[in-house]
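Handout, section B. The chain below has 257 residues.
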Amino acid sequence: RDVPRHRAAGWVLAVPPAVTLAVMLWGITAPSYWRDESATLSATSRSLPQLLRMLGRVDVVHGAYYVLLWPVVQLLGTGEFVTRLPSAIAMAAAALGVAAIGNKLRSRRAGLYAGLVFASLPMVSIRGHDARPYAMVTAVAVLASYLLIRAIDQPRPRRFAAYGASVAALGYLHVFALLLIPAHAIMMVRAARNQDPRRGEPLLRWWTVAVVAAAVTVTPVAALGWQQRGQISWLARPGLPEIYALLDSLAAGTGAS
């Protein structure tokens, strides 16, 4: 009797990433490289020692992504399909994580619908067609959230250690992605309140240790990135037009313009 249920759960988890990958591959080579993607090509076309020297001067905040993409470019070249494919795969992995979270928190149907909604979002397609780190950041953020849910469900030091490792990986892919931590903090406080006090206190303590360890691990990149902040000094302070543009892009992407 358990076999059909397991098969159903597997089907629910398989459909969203498959649909997402199909959506990501559709038209993946159509847009020409834009300015930031050109920076990716410049970084990953160098030899590895040259790339590491470059990161000591600029773009260290994207260094982990460049290092991950470097062997792909060296082996397969700099075509749009090659350099954007890792982002497409990362978005498919994120869809799997979204479906798994929905399945765990609510039901198989909720997981399926959540994963399919994720696949339909224009911003997901935009970043899945982008040779930049944002799709990988999304995938790791979803992974960290899933690992935290599992750790809350069955608190174990090793589960919080896995969560902390995912948060550290998130910080190395993009320092600003660590803004996910306050959202997780709210989640942890609510979870601790719903627990018996004898169980809630260790829950918060283990989470705090995991986050602090991750923050310490990311400190070298954050510190060097702060030293390199001059490379974005030309950016103006955002105002209401920029906020509106952000909300517009999150809601419908360039397709609504």
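Note. The two ends are 51 Å apart (CA to CA). Compare this with the example in section A.
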